[in-house]
């Protein structure tokens, strides 16, 4: 089974890190609804990722990070 893992990039330190995980098909629907600002389809359960997040483990303090997409990995 393929898993989609959302990724963020910190504006301060440039580190790319992973967040929530989903299936590839569902991740695409979640990503589109997040980008256009619509609500998540009712048949999907879970917390929708944010476009902007806080990178609390930033090496330089606390940074702002952006959702940059998702990667697909074989599980």
Question: Based on helices, strands and strand pairing, what is the structural class?
Answer: alpha+beta
**Shape summary:** globular
Sheet having the most strands: 4 strands, antiparallel
Widest β-sheet, arrangement of strands: 2-1-4-3
So what's the oligomer here?
single chain
- Radius of gyration based on Cα positions: 13 Å
Secondary structure tally, helices:
1
Total strands: 4
Strand content: 35-45%
Overall pLDDT metric: 85
The poorly predicted ranges are: none
Span of the ends, CA to CA: 5 Å
Number of domains: 1
Fraction in helix: 10-25%
- Output the helix-strand order: EEHEE
Attribute tags:
single chain; 75 residues; alpha+beta; 4-stranded antiparallel sheet; 1 helix
């Amino acid at each position: 089974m393929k898993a989609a893992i959302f990724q963020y990039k910190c504006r301060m330190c440039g580190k790319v890190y992973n967040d929530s995980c989903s299936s590839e098909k569902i991740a695409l629907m979640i990503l589109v609804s997040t980008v256009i600002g619509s609500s998540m389809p009712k048949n999907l359960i879970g917390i929708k990722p944010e476009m902007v997040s806080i990178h609390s483990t930033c090496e330089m303090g606390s940074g702002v990070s952006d959702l940059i997409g998702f990667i697909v990995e074989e599980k």
